[in-house]
Write a structure and sequence with these properties.
single chain; alpha+beta; 3 helices; 20% helix; globular
Length: 165
Amino acid sequence: MSLNLTHSEIEQFLYHEARTLDDRDFESWLEFYHPDVEYWMPAWDDNGELTEDPQREISLMYYPNRGGLEDRVFRIRTERSSATSLPEPRTGHNITNVEILETRDGEIDVRHNWNNYYFRYNTTDVYFGTTFLTLDVSGEKPLIKKKKIVLKNDYIHHIVDVYMV
């Protein structure tokens, strides 16, 4: 039996996921993801087109399952990351234009726009884009089964990380 989520419940789910990033509660953030999640941020090619195959083309981020996200969180927490240092960055995620694209038995496809303010070393950067995701609603709680993040301002001057988008 599938969960029957309302538009408002999907929005609340997305807001809660974003809040875990802003609170740097990465362990709770991981709980939003299905074990078989595909987490992908394609890159823009020289012709201004998004790359289409994370196995063959450059991506800004690609994790084929939750194990990759868990490893990322481990590296953030243990300072084994070139993107991590002190002081820890502060973020503020904002989600808008949440749309339900398709509903299937056990899955819901969602699209939303977002922007994120990222503050570190007395500098504020703004990232914005669109996310496409598939929610697995076949269990007791929704889980993100697929997430494609399109970063629209991809001219960045440092490494982008999961808490920045």
